[in-house]
Specification:
The chain has 77 residues and is mostly helical. 66% of the residues lie in helices and 0% in strands. It contains 4 helices and no strands. The protein starts with a helix and ends in a 12-residue tail after the last helix.
Length: 77
């Protein structure tokens, strides 16, 4: 079962702990919300850039790890 502890464990796994964990979580959640707000055309445009792909990767990781979150933002998946 997915839980927010899994998200925090993932953040800690890349050495962000303590106050950095909270700041990282807020940033990841903000990116997730930004990606969720895009329509199909905007997502396909994002997929064509390195920064856009990074945002989508972060949003998908969050969606796969956090409870009750959407995680498929790419057409080919």
């Amino acid at each position: 079962m997915k839980s927010m502890q899994n998200v925090r464990d993932g953040i800690n796994g890349i050495t962000f702990e303590y106050d950095r964990e909270d700041r990282s979580l807020k940033a990841i959640e903000a990116i997730y919300m930004l990606v969720c707000s895009r329509d199909c055309w905007s997502l396909s445009k994002m997929e064509k850039t390195k920064l856009g792909k990074a945002f989508i990767d972060i949003a998908e990781w969050y969606g796969e790890t956090a409870p009750a979150c959407y995680s498929n933002f790419r057409k080919e998946k």
